[in-house]
TrEMBL record:
Annotated protein name in UniProt: Hydrolase glyoxylase
UniProt keyword terms in alphabetical order: Hydrolase
Signal sequence range: none
Keyword Transmembrane found: no
Lineage: Bacteria, Bacillati, Bacillota, Bacilli, Bacillales
Amino acid sequence: MLNKLSDAIYYLPNEDNRDRPTLGLIYGDQWSLIIDSGNATQHAKEFLQEIEKLNAPPIKYLVITHAHWDHILGMNEFDATIIVNSQTNELIKEWQSYSYDDNSLQKYVNNNQMSTQCMKIIQTEIPSRNTFKLNSPDVIFENTLNIDLGNKVCILERIQSTHTDDSTIIYIPDEKVIFLGDCAYGTTTNSLFHFKQSLLTPMIQDIQKYDAEWFLLGHESICDAEEMNIYWEELTTASRVVKSSSLENSLECFKAEYKRDPNDNEFFFIKAFVNDHIIKSK
Ligand SMILES: [Zn+2]
């Protein structure tokens, strides 16, 4: 079911057990804009069915926050102008080149181009897979793009991110709401979960320059400003003590610096920053 955040903003909450990220709907006097397309045809269809129950203006735009499969594979269901940043446009090309029949999917999984979970979702939630081809984006921007939906401006910006190099965020100044996609998360490289440490501070600065009260995250649904500040604080506190690929040294440094043990979140982040050093040293 859609959750209503304000008269102009709705979202379909994430479902972790089915790898479904949060999807957004923003509307102005004339047009609606969608944020992320869902992880497959089925997810997109269910979202569109929910939107039909509202008295929303026609859907004119679909913004993709980044080129991860769970945010893009529902794209073909939307009769809308698809907007991405230039890096997302490059990364989507791989998914456009794919075939979606069983043999091809298995080959991508074997080559580590696709996760098993992704293959399973595609197999159960994209009908007519043998002829399925992912559409192309229509509008490609470099750094920022403003869209007016009719007395409702959306500011799109490609920002630096600990998750991917192609993260777009969407800020709606009237509502003080910001859609972050997955940008605030870490990522997995060669089976190691890590946060791109060098991009943490630039990312937080990129986000905090917007005066947001509500934050929508790809796999968390919604956070208020206080929750978000705690998240940034824990990440920053953890990052400050990680200067090498040694977990032991980092934990010692934490205790020396803050005169206490890290909490569970901080410990998780310290390990992720340590992993970032391990990946960089390879
Ligand atoms: Zn992602």
